[in-house]
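In response to the reviewer comment on reproducibility (Comment 2.3), we provide here a single inverse folding case reported in full, input and output, so that an independent group could reproduce the run without further information from us. The C-alpha cells appear first.
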C-alpha cells in the first residue's frame, strides 16, 4: 500500500461578535436591537434555583434545631454548657465595629449631601454614595 497525501482548501469562517471577541455559547443575541447579549435562560429559572437552595438550607437548619430540642428534652444525660466569657467580648467588638462603620458611612453621606446643597440642592443618588464608599 502506498501512502497518498491529499491537499484541499480550507474555508475560514468568522464567528466573532465584532470587537467583543468570539460569540459565547452561553449568550444569544439580545432583544430590542441594542446589539447586547441576553442570558440563555430566563430569569425565572435562576429565581427558582435560588428559592430551592434557600428551602434546602432552611430544612437543614430546622432539622438541626429539631434534633437539638429532641435531644435536650428526651435524654436524661443532657449536660448544659455555660457560655464562654469571650463570647460576650466578641459580641461587643462586633457591635462596636458595626456602629463605627455606620457612623463613617453617615459622615460620608452627609458630606455628599452638603456638597449637593452647595451646587444647587440636588439630592445624592444611591449609586453616588456607593461609588464614594468604594473609591474613598
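Designed residues, in position order:
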Amino acid at each position: 500500500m502506498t501512502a497518498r497525501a491529499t491537499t484541499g482548501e480550507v474555508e475560514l469562517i468568522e464567528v466573532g461578535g465584532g470587537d467583543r471577541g468570539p460569540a459565547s455559547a452561553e449568550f444569544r443575541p439580545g432583544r430590542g436591537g441594542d446589539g447586547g447579549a441576553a442570558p440563555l435562560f430566563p430569569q425565572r429559572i435562576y429565581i427558582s434555583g435560588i428559592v430551592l437552595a434557600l428551602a434546602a438550607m432552611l430544612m437543614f437548619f430546622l432539622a438541626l434545631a429539631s434534633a437539638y430540642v429532641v435531644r435536650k428534652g428526651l435524654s436524661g444525660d443532657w449536660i448544659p454548657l455555660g457560655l464562654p466569657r469571650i463570647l460576650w467580648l466578641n459580641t461587643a467588638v462586633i457591635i462596636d465595629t458595626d456602629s463605627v462603620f455606620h457612623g463613617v458611612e453617615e459622615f460620608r453621606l452627609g458630606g455628599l449631601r452638603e456638597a449637593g446643597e452647595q451646587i444647587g440642592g440636588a439630592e445624592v443618588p444611591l449609586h453616588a454614595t456607593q461609588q464614594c464608599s468604594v473609591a474613598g
